[in-house]
Write the structure tokens for this entry.
Amino acid sequence: MFKGTNASAGIGIGKAAVIKEVEMVIRPEKVASVEAEVQRFRGALADTVAQTKALADDLATKVGEKEAEIMNGHLMLLADPMMTGEIEEAIKRDSVCSEYAIETTCTTYADLFASMDDELMQQRATDMRDIKTRMQQVLQGIKPVDIASLPEGSIIVAKDLTPSMTAGINPANVTGIVTELGGKTSHSAILARALEIPAVVAVSHVMDQIKEGDTIVLDGSEGIVIVNPTDGEMEEYTAKREAFLQEKKDLERFIGMPTVTKDGVHIELVANIGNPDDVAKVLQYDGEGVGLFRTEFLFMDRTSMPTEEEQFEAYKKVAVGLAGKPVIIRTLDIGGDKEIPYMGLAKDENPFLGYRAIRLCLDRKEDIYRPQLRALLRASAFGGIKIMIPMITCIDEIREAKALIEEIKGELDRKGVAYNKDIQVGIMVETAAASLMADVFAKEVDFFSIGTNDLTQYTMSVDRGNEKISYLYSTFNPAVLRSIRNIISCGREAGIMVGMCGEAASDPLMIPLLLAFGLNEFSMSASAILKSRKMITGYSSQELQAVAEKAMSFTTAKEVEAYMKEFVNQ
Amino acid sequence: MVRAKVVIRNLTGLHLRPAGVLCNKAILYKSRIQFQTSSTTANAKSVLSVLGACVKNGDEIEFICEGEDEQEALDSMIRVVEDGLGE
């Protein structure tokens, strides 16, 4: 059994198709006519471009425009005048063959990209090596490995899959991919996920251990590869494969279904996202909107503050992508625990109790909060944006933030800039103070969203990063549960929506309790949505009242959790 | 020779796609088109050179154009960056 990186979920069972590139020996052979050699190179370049173009078109129709971008990128690199110029220059200067000139030039660029401190740029090194090999293969008359014609039930085993090889995969015939190199974000892993082919990558020395035709079992969820499995293992993984496919099919049935409990209570099932590109996943898993869009990504890993315009574009992109569905955007939630040199934040002794989130924003209205709120208001003209304020502890913070929003609305009115005049403004309820004051705060805002990760941390006075006290960090602690129940009932009494965007919202043991408490909106990672919809539609919130009552009668987190486990499993 | 500064506003910086948009614009002009960053000078007509400059979101670059259509080229380069390089 081999262990590797789980790159694409699912179980693959089949016969090994070992992919070995023909080894090319590239030597600095002298050429008689430099002019003729340059022509030979140009011919090979044109053929490589034509091949790549065909792969790109094939990929665009077979998988999608987005996946074809990798090949379109290769076309751009092949068209680069600097690279082709340098190759021709090397041929002329040293009277060497094209293969060698390509080798030295492309390797220089590949090494340059590989040395950069940027993952996207490092991927360009793979691209450079790929186009290098393909040009050399054309020159030597070597046919590229024909992955497209592998027989049904093949498991591809390779040192590494170049983007151009991956582009030729026929998902109907390939049931799994195993590679010796690569990572979760390499081209081949991304494409394997898009094609839904189970894949395990970065399996060391696997090429020495697998022969053509060996029976292979791989678990792309766990990162396990078994060569020539025993009957027992075969049986086990055949069952696992069926269970995986069954569950997938089972969950797919819930796409497009409303999230309604058996007794007719409508629940909003929405997603947490970290940047605008996550919208595709939300739609894929049929999220009913976004319950938490963290805006921190806009401010991280850069050297200056993002402009209002840049923020506006990001917020607008999400609003437009969700086409009118609710999109709750949380304003900047950042403090002294993050390194953001350009913000000039002093190191906080106690960052989670310090100068952060709304405290920081209200203190830095001009350079931070005003531009962000104005960008949010402007973007609200394009979809269902709601503004959410994090880490509220007292009512003055709510009033001050709302006054600022009103002030900006006035400015926009005077300038005739469009925005949603009825935009909802809500708060994260995640501090002990906000929970105790929930009845009062509920009258001042349009919605609550309970952040259970911080609420647990602040209620239990436990640093969630500290292993030694991790036993205290449980949302099942009766103190935390009482707090959650109180927040939900205060919100409901005031007639506002109450949601939850912490990890507890997708915890199968927590969902029945939250339904019983009357939570309206559950926000979670997109991939958990269908599973949660399946659970929610199977319960009746009326019938859950007794379960919640019993759960709340216990005095320790352990007892509550054990009871909920027992209830869910029966 | 003419020159002008502009700030890159692409979330992941000048990676392959925006770099391609930039180059495709640059090759339309006869002038030599380069840009300077705080650490290097790149040829705007070469996607490899542009990528090699490793320009990040928020970085300021200065275009330098030289040739018969230099002013037109400069204006056009600034505009294509300000328009977000196709993103």
Remarks:
- Chain A is about 50% helix and 15% strand.
- The mean pLDDT of chain A is 92.
- The interface with chain B takes residues 69, 73, 76-77, 79-83, 109, 112-113, 116, 118, 120-121, 124, 275, 301-304, 306-307, 309-310, 313-314 of chain A (CB under 8 Å).
